[in-house]
Every structure is written in structure tokens, then in C-alpha cells.
Amino acid sequence: MSTASTGGSTNGTGDVRSRIFAVRDVADLVASTEHEGEGLKKSVGAGQLTAFGVGAIIGTGIFVVIGEGALTAGPAVVISFVLAAVACVFSALSYAELASSIPVSGSAYTYSYATLGELVAWIIGWDLILEYGVSVAAVAVGWGGNVNEFLQSAFGWQLPDAISMSPSDGGVFNLPAVFIVAVITFLLVRGTRESARANLIMVGIKLLILVFFIVIAFLNFNPSHFDDFSPKGVDGITTAASVIFFAFIGFDAVSTGSEEANNPKRDLPLAIIGSLVICTIFYVLVAAGAIGIASPQTLGGSDAPLAAALRDGAGISWAAGILAFGALVAITSVVLVIMYGQTRIFFAMCRDGLLPRGLATVHPRYGTPARLTIGMGVLIAILAALVPLGEIVKLVNIGTLFAFILVNIGVIVLRRTRPDMPRPYRVPLSPVFPGLGILFALYLMKDLPFDTWVRFVVWLVVGLAIYVFYGYSHSRLRTEPSARG
């Protein structure tokens, strides 16, 4: 073991510092996936991984956020969608490089472990557990709300509030949210291939519904709606882009499937970048079509702006049921992909010893971390059924942006510390592009509310306490020193 690896000190603060910032060797990270009972089954290809990305990105965002964006930017919301995509693309390129170079489950957590050290990896892993967990619970609650919207649009009745809302919202128990979490948990336990097939079907359905909207919109298109293209100028466009940005979040979930990809060196870059490109094209076409048949005021004044556009702009009132169904399918695939990502990150942390290794056991038949998945499913179902989420959902935004920053830094650091490491995909113009990814993330983080930062810091303090009293001493870097880089 080299002096650079240990920090050159055998005691005192220097030794502690070298230990908590020690990195995992990339070769050892890959080798750990081959341990009996701890390696995930390779079962998905580029198409399925791309569908994972599209499944995670296209959710309620395009069905809802377009209204808020149109009110802010006017018809120039089309440009806002492009800017939001550009803000994401630099981080997407960095994810693609690291995912192809380190084909190990864990996403930003694993990449940080290989580049910035154990403490930083723990922080981002703990952050991602919260981000993904709260996101799944919140989306599951949204799924319950969309069930009622679909039932009302299609059949004229709804589930009683008592079994479709949390206690804080006037109900007793959010049964639809529990139901969807239970179904997704079952799918994830059964196998990644089965989950990927189900997601592929759902992605196909929601893209067909968006194509339906685009075709109807362009058949009834009114160019005069674009006459006052940017009523609030550049400020309106950039402000809308910062809102719309969060409709693109989800491509990072693709990287959590690194270990289960049939050909990670090729499939992961294609899936990460491909899913972002596909979603951007759909977002821009939908935004242009919506403005072409409805005013920004019509879109912004409705909780279902696309349905409102078809009803008021194209005179198709029956389309509300179709779009409500599309939103329901879209949300289901988001729950699937985000919960999949959370279980893989948690699995990687357990396998590395930072959390109980017993939870990193892979089911001998299904090839999935079944025990861990069921446990996470139960916790998320309880959260979705009973706990008011409210402002805590904003933690998803700050957690995602924090992960983007560390992944971009990881690319820069690994280029310097491991210049000869095989990189099947390389970010162009590094460190310029990763640097732009960092700047875009920082720019968006600065506008988050102060109380979001407070909750984020509190969560990290709790995580640091767990690391100090458990993770540090049980880490494979302590129990298996050969794991060090």
C-alpha cells in the first residue's frame, strides 16, 4: 500500500483524515460484484436501460409543470425546455463516463467512493437514500391522487377520502399509495428483467399518449399564439427553465443499473444520453403544441394543463380521460425506476459494510436484493400512507443537485488520479463540461428555500452520526484493507 493511499501517517489527526478520505480501488469495486451471493444478475440491455431513463424522467412534470412554465415565460417556454435540458446534459455526460468506467451498482455513491473518498461517498449515499425514498413516497401519493382523477374523468366516481388520503389531508389511510408501492416491490423482487419489461410497456403507453397530444395539437395549431413570444424577456425564460429543470431529473437513475447491464461499457452511455435526448424532443414538441392551441393563462390556470389545452383549444373534452390515464401510467413507471435506484444504492452501501452487510444478500433464484427491497418497500408504504410529506419533498431537488456536483467533480478528479484507467466513454472537453455541470447545479441550488437547506443539513448530521458509530468501523476499508485504492 502506497504512502499516498494511507496519507503518510500512522497516528493522530493525519491518520484519521487519511482513513475517512481513503478511496476504494476501482478494480476492487468491480471484483466485489463477483463475490458469491453479493453480485447482481446481468439481465438488461441498452433499450431497457434507456426505457428506465425515460420512465424516470417523464412523469407528472410534463403533465403539470408545463403550465407553470408557460405562465412564467409565455410561448418562450419552448426555449426554457431546451435550456433546462442543456443544464442537465453536462451532468449526464459525466454520469455516462463514470458509469461506463465503473460498472458497479450505487451510482454517485460508488463514483464518489472511487474518487473523493469514503466520507464523501457516505454523505452522498445517505443523501441519495433520502432523495430516492422521499421521491418514491411522494410520487406514490401523487399516483393515488391521479387514480381518483382518472376514475372521475373516465367513470364519474372516486374513491372515498378516508382510504385515498393521508390523515393530514383529511383521510385515514392512503390505500392507493400503499397498493402501488406493494406492486412495484413485488416486481423488483421478482427480477430486474421482469421490471424492465413492465417499465418498457409503460413507457410505450405514455409516449403514445404524448404522440396523440402532439398530433391533435399540431392539427389545430394557431401560429398567432406565438406573436408575443417572450413577454417577460430573458428573465422569464431562465426562471421558467429553473422550474422546468426538475421535470428532467431521473436520467441519473439509469446509472444505478450499471452492475446489471449486459454490456455496461456501451449500454450505459447510450441509455443515459439517449433517454435525455428522447425526453427533450418530446418535451419541446408537447410545449410547442400546447402553446399552439391554448394561451399560457389557460395552461397555467389548470392542474391538468394538457387536458385543458385539448378541451379549450381543440374542443376535445373527452381527451381528459386519456391524459389522466397517461399521467397514471407515467407516474407508475417513475415509482418503479426510482425505487429500483434506491434499492441499488442501499445495496451498494450495505455490500461495502457502511450499513449492515447482511442486507446485501442476493436472492439465489431472482438475482435481486430481495430482503432489502421488501424492507424498503414496507418503509416507503408506511411513509406514503400516513406521513404528510409537504415541504420535505423539496429535499429531492437539493439531493439531486448535490449528487450532480459530486459526479462532475468525480470525473475531474479521476482524470487526474487515474489517467490511464480504461474509459469506454469520455466526457468531451473535460474539465470544461464537468465544470459547467457544477456551475448549473450551484446556480439552481441557490434558489432553494432556506428551510430546505436546514432539513438537508439535519439529515446529513444524522447520517454522520451513523457513520461515526457504525459505518466507519464496519467498512470494508477497515475489515478488508486490500480494498483501498
UniProtKB/TrEMBL annotation:
It is a multi-pass membrane protein. Keywords: Membrane, Transmembrane, Transmembrane helix. This is Amino acid permease. It holds the Pfam family AA_permease_2. It is found in: Membrane. The chain crosses the membrane at residues 49-67, 73-96, 171-189, 201-221, 236-256, 268-295, 315-341, 372-389, 395-415, 427-446, 452-472. Its main location: membrane. It comes from the Bacteria. InterPro entries: AA/rel_permease1.
